[in-house]
């Protein structure tokens, strides 16, 4: 399929190219042109509804006081409460949080969940914090956001640098302020606190399902297909394991310390056991060490960038030889790189579709919490597969109908659904 040629919306230098907000707006604007969106609705949808910046004084273990900066952006709540993770990272920026919140709006709409988009972040190095310091930081951040959080208003989840334990502290802090236990205020919890079976693998399972669907469109089965996975964390490791279990041959994986390759296929269970003990792939002997950039350029059927934003840019997109790029991370491909990949005939399954399995099972968790009932694993996996396959088909049909890329079609589907709700609801005056 071809992509409609449109004027560039961001500057070609790498600094602007890798700005996440600029990348989101570039894709948004392409979709708006295709949709012929009403200018008034366009002005509403491109702006976040609410941005909160909070100062977080925390007493450290040695008695000194540190003040951290926290953010929470709610992009849109027309379709339901804001939904989006909280990341603890030393590189968090307001533009990153804004972009991620908008991506969540479009992502939830693409898979037709009754959520809007939100995102949060705290500027810190989570690995430099003791457990007690991280707990105090989490409770302070939650307390600062209490006027805005709630099962019907804004529902956080875990993300980079946060986990089930952080979500437990958030749940407890919110519940103590509210005066009652409120499991549905947060997702990504442990099973003991009302988390959902299948949540840990959900994003990786969604990647596997959409990769399989993409290969089918190219006349190829997932069984026997070769796969390279950049990023061997929560998403990448789960995607690699599930792809291997489905019969694919995972020939390369990487994390921030090492990239490993084997033409015969890597033993993903062996690698997972190693990282469970050592935390990283550093020193892992189960495969041939290759340069990280070499992984992106491998001649494979499926490339899964599941590590960081801006992994594929205009500087290296020409080296990609995969038939399918299935985006496990948020924003791993820049807007400029899209044009290069499209010209090379690479089928890109965009992040707002490919990695939507996580928020889909988060929605299942929220539903289970509100109903006071837990589903079994088979129910979760079956319903997730139904959601992902239906969304893939709808995006593909729109791409063919408008002769645009899968990414532009996904944005068109998500933006179009939010715009229709805006039309129906009108403006409160």
Structure notes:
With 429 residues, the protein is an alpha/beta fold. Among the domains are: 48-181, Leucine Dehydrogenase, chain A, domain 1 (Rossmann fold); 200-354, Rossmann fold. It is 45% helix and 16% strand. The chain has 15 helices and twelve strands. The protein has helices at residues 14-17, 20-35, 39-45, 94-110, 131-144, 164-178, 199-217, 234-245, 268-278, 292-296, 335-343, 351-354, 357-371, 377-402, 406-425; strands at 50-59, 65-76, 82-89, 116-123, 154-158, 226-230, 249-254, 259-261, 288-290, 302-305, 324-326, 347-349. The strands form two sheets. The chain has a seven-stranded mixed β-sheet with strand order 9-8-7-6-10-11-12, with helices on both faces. Strands 1-2-4-3-5 form a five-stranded mixed β-sheet. Helix 8 links the parallel strand 6 and strand 7. Helix 13 (357-371) packs across helix 14. The longest helix has 26 residues, at 377-402. The relative contact order is 0.14.
How would you sum up the global shape?
globular
Helix-strand category: alpha/beta
Distance between the termini: 44 Å
Largest sheet: 7 strands, mixed
CATH superfamily of the domain at 200-354: NAD(P)-binding Rossmann-like Domain
**Number of distinct beta strands:** 12
User: Looking across the biggest beta sheet, what order are the strands in?
Assistant: 9-8-7-6-10-11-12
CATH class of the domain at 200-354: Alpha Beta
Number of DSSP helices?
15
Helix content: 40-55%
């Amino acid at each position: 399929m071809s992509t409609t040629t449109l004027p560039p919306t961001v500057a070609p230098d790498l600094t602007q190219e890798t700005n996440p907000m600029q990348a989101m707006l570039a894709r948004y604007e392409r979709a708006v042109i295709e949709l012929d969106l009403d200018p008034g609705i366009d002005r509403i949808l491109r702006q976040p509804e609410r941005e909160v910046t909070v100062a977080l004084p925390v007493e450290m273990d040695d008695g000194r006081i540190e003040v951290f900066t926290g953010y929470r952006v709610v992009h849109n709540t027309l379709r339901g409460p804001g939904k989006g993770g909280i990341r603890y990272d030393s590189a968090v920026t307001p533009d990153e949080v804004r972009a991620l919140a908008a991506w969540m709006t479009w992502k939830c709409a693409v898979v037709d969940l009754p959520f809007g988009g939100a995102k949060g972040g705290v500027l810190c190095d989570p690995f430099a914090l003791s457990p007690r310091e991280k707990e105090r930081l989490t409770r302070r951040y939650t307390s600062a956001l209490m006027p805005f959080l709630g099962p019907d208003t804004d529902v956080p989840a875990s993300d980079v640098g946060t986990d089930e334990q952080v979500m437990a502290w958030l749940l407890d802090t919110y519940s103590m302020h509210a005066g009652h236990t409120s499991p549905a205020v947060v997702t990504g919890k442990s099973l003991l606190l009302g988390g959902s079976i299948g949540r840990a693998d959900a994003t990786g399972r969604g990647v596997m399902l959409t990769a399989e669907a993409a290969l089918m469109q190219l006349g190829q089965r997932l069984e026997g297909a070769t796969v390279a996975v950049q990023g061997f964390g929560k998403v990448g490791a789960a995607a690699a394991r599930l792809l291997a279990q489905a019969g694919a041959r995972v020939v390369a994986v990487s994390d921030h310390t090492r990239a490993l390759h084997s033409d015969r296929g890597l033993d993903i269970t062996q690698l997972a056991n190693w990282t469970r003990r050592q935390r990283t792939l550093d020193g892992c002997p189960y495969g041939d060490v290759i340069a990280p950039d070499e992984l992106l350029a491998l001649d494979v059927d499926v490339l899964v960038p599941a590590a960081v934003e801006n992994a594929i840019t205009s500087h290296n997109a020409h080296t990609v030889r995969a038939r399918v790029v299935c985006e496990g991370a948020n924003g791993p491909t820049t807007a400029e790189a899209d044009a290069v990949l499209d010209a090379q005939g690479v089928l890109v399954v965009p992040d707002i579709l490919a990695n939507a399995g996580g928020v889909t099972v988060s929605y299942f968790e929220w539903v289970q919490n509100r109903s006071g009932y837990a589903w079994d694993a088979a129910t979760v996996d079956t319903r997730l597969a139904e959601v992902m396959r239906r969304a893939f088909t709808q995006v593909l049909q729109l791409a063919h109908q408008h002769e645009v890329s899968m990414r532009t079609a996904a944005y068109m589907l998500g933006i179009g659904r939010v715009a229709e709700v805006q039309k129906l609801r009108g403006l409160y005056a």
